[in-house]
Design goal:
The structure is a single chain. The protein is of the alpha/beta class. It folds into three domains: about 150 residues, Rossmann fold (3-Layer(aba) Sandwich); about 100 residues, Serine Threonine Protein Phosphatase 5, Tetratricopeptide repeat, CATH 1.25.40; about 140 residues, DNA Cyclobutane Dipyrimidine Photolyase, subunit A, domain 3. Helix content is about 45%, strand content about 5%. Strands 1-6-5-2-3-4 form a six-stranded mixed sheet, sandwiched between helices. Helix 12 packs across helix 18, helix 15 packs across helix 20 and helix 16 packs antiparallel against helix 17. About 45% of the residues are buried.
Amino acid sequence: MKNFNSNRVFKRNNHEPNPDGEYVLYWMQINRRFHYNFALEYAVGWANKLGKPLVILEAFSCDYPWATARTHTFMMQGMKEHLEYADRQKLNYVSFVEAEAGQYESLLKKLASNAAVLVTDEYPVFIMRKRNETYPQELEIPYFTVDSNGLIPLGLTDKDPYSAYLFRKIMQKNFVEAFTNPPKQNPLEDLENTDKVELSADLYDGITDGRDSLEKIPEFVSKLDINQEVKPIEWHGGRQAALGMLGAFIQNGLKVYDEKRNDPDEKKTSNLSPWLHFGKISEYEVVKAVLEHQPAGWDLDKITYNNGSTGGFFNGDPNIDGFLDEVITWREVGFHYAHHRDDYDRLDSLPDWAMETLNNHRDDPREWVYTYEELANSQTHDEIWNAAQTQLREEGIIHNYLRMLWGKKVIEWTPDPETALEYLIDLNNTYAIDGRDPNSYSGIFWCFGRFDRAWQERPIFGKLRYMTSDSTRKKVKLKQYLGKYGNQKALL
């Protein structure tokens, strides 16, 4: 454990290991993978230090905010794949999906009561953040959270980065060290004590073992008290699907990414965000695979620190360089921001200039004002916006470029900034399969000025960056996209 990156480890209480604990418990909350996982690696280190076996808990609750059949199905598909892998590897793996609120928490605390140490995932938003703030005070064993979210450790920044430029400077200074100290491909290979753990008979206390629910996912999900109107998507929630999507992107989209990523008709984006969100694939794996396709002769020595500029750092294929800036800088800046801010999801977290300009223009007249239901059902006068919302509602994603327009227009079509923010968070976290993520809040709050600068002043927006559907139609290719998603009739 002495070689582990300390900037990724957070000790949440001051307890000593329980000498009578039967095992070390790794609670897999969000980075749900057996490979390239710093948290699992750290749990294995503790198990080896104490000479104990490792128990891995992967569970899913039913009473979290924005719970839908879409999210449940995607998550359970991945859990079923894990269960099959754990059986083949003879792991001490506990898989459980609760049918009633409270069952998950009860199971966790029973497992923890027999553990020597608990290790789980560090995650700066949503229910994972709240659990990691409250549970350490309720348990009597050491509670460690470990950051497996990105390349640049969360502990490396000492305050919230207010711009992508600022974070890019930090990334550039630390990229080589971070990339050359990766998570282990298969940390479980290092586990020394592989004894089978016989869990107590009352562990489930009348509730159903997760194996049963994972054998009949549609039937199980249909009976849950969650939002059943948000239907599952076609993409599978397992790791193998993530690796397949990565391979398809490298083959079909990577080498033209910089030129064609903004055109919805070209379909050249990576589509990896759902699996990155649920931790089915690590960011390191993505970056490593992409760097292997740099031009012949390229290596890490070609990297040049350039003080935070977007170009001239990797010094390789500009398409690869552009993608890496998206997946490292723009993805991770939101993680680091939320790590340092408990108001990451509130309007008052905006920079002073953005709050001032929004307040100065909050009473500006709006030509169009829509209800939440009208927005959710793509019932606006704007064909492009309707198409983007239809894609989100039906498929759980929005094309990256159109997501910006989607957010900006809600600011224009709601009575005030508070309503706009409420609607955007709810629409995104309800329908987006990659919602409830630091990256989600980055995208939404960027529309309000976070990680941006002041622009020319306009009605409603003030000095916020302005986008229009007319300019979008001129800039990007939309014919096929509108043909597929634009059948929802625009209001006239």
